[in-house]
Each structure stands twice: as C-alpha cells, then as structure tokens.
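ADP-dependent (S)-NAD(P)H-hydrate dehydratase
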Amino acid sequence: MKLPSILFKRKLDSHKGDYGHLFVIGGSPGLTGAVALSSLSALRSGAGLVTSGIPESLNTILEIKLTEVMTKPLPETKERTLSIKALPEIVKFSKKIDAFAIGPGLSTQKETANLLLNFLPKIDKPTILDADGINILARKIAVLKKIESPFILSPHPGEMSRLLKTDISVIQKNRRKIAKDFAVKYGVVLVLKGHQTIVADEKGNIYINHTGNAGMATAGSGDILTGIIGAFLARGWENFAAAKFGVYLHGLAGDLAAKEKGENSLIATDIIEKLSSAFLVDNKRRKAYTD
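Tokens:
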C-alpha cells in the first residue's frame, strides 16, 4: 500500500488551522529535550500548530529550544513537575486544540501522576500516550476503560512489561499476541515498539512495520515517533491509520539518516532532519509500507 496523497499535497488556499493543533504535555528538570523533540517532529510531520504544555519554571528553557512551537507554562510542584493545579488549565485549553501527545519527559512524580490519572477520563480529543505517561498509567490501568476518545499507547518492551506486570522476556516472545490482546481488551491502538514495531487496533487488526534500523535505538527516538503520530491525529486521521503511517515514516526517516550518518552515530535529531525526505520518498520506496 502506498502512502496516500493527502500526506503530501496541500490546497493552495490553505492556512495553518487546516492542519490541526497538537498539544504536547510533558517536561521536567533534565528532560526538556523529550518534549522539545516531540513538538518539533510534530511540526515536521505537518501539524499546523503545536503547543508544548510544560512546568512553568521550564518555560524559558523551552522558548530557547523551540522557535516555531508555542509554549504554555503550567502550574508546577516543588520538584518542578506538572502539578494537579494544572488540571483546569489543561481542560480549558483542550477546547482550542485537536489532539494530545502526553508523556515525553513528564516524570512519575506523585502529584504529576495524580494529575494524569485525573485527566485521562476527561480527555475528549484523540490522544497518544507515551513514556512516563505509560509508566503512570501502569499504576492504575483500569483508567483506560474510562477513556472514550480515540487513544493510542506506544510502549517499548519495558513499559509494556510494566503495563502487564510481567517480564520483558515474555513480551518479546509473544509480541503479536500480546499487542493484539491488549488492544482488543482495552479498546485502544497499541504501538509495541522494537524491531519490526507492531501496531494493533481494538478490532484485532495487526500491522507489522518493516522500516527502521538498529541506529534508532537512541535517546529521543521514541519521543519523535510520539510527535509524528500526534501530528497525524491533529490532522484528523483515524487512530489506527495515524499509528501505522507514523511508525512507517519514523522508520523511513531513520533509514535515510542511517545511510548518511551510519547507525553507530545516529542521534534523534538526525531522524527529524530526514522527515522531510521521508515525505518526499518516491512511490517505489513507499511500497515498503505493507499491511
């Protein structure tokens, strides 16, 4: 299957509002890079607007890191992570946006976890949850049953093991079945990252990705995937399609970067730099995307 032309063509009379507004929620001391990478990759993936919701004391740092991305400083804890007091502001701001990407650099601080677990049942926009967002959810996974909006989880094997409270070795030996069973049970799309990333939906459909390389096993790579998928959600894509195409393009950009930099020297920003090339790839290369 080829990537659809909607990914590559825009109307001549377009404006930024036509391509969605993504709200990326995360960030904590020492982990500002995660939310920055997700936000930048979302813009590179065609989102018309991206806002980073971060602890207020980190706002200056993010404004220096990010030029095209907007920031929204939110109430924080004494540890400078997001506070439960941010909940009403997030709920209010959600009326202005089209999708959420939650978790990059979020931390698992107790009050921040309380914020997330209280907010998830209130979500009314398509959402991708990653990183510390998943680690927090693992503490109270029943919350997933309360979420009514389209929802994507993108765990690596370690995070998946925490969700299921089982060993990583068990996950790795049964990747397809575990991904499928989880997605069906909780009514979500699951992106189980790793070699040949698996995407499963709530109907039991499975997609196995064939792009990507070992050089992408580097800090920040997963944050970029979160931003790509989040951008597609903001642009109005159905969640299974957004996850499949996001995983494919993420891997393709990584492959293009590895050809230039080599796998050993690959870093996350190299992947972002090649997203433009991934979007421009010819029809023959697009056929690497298979169901």
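The first helix runs from residue 32 to 44.
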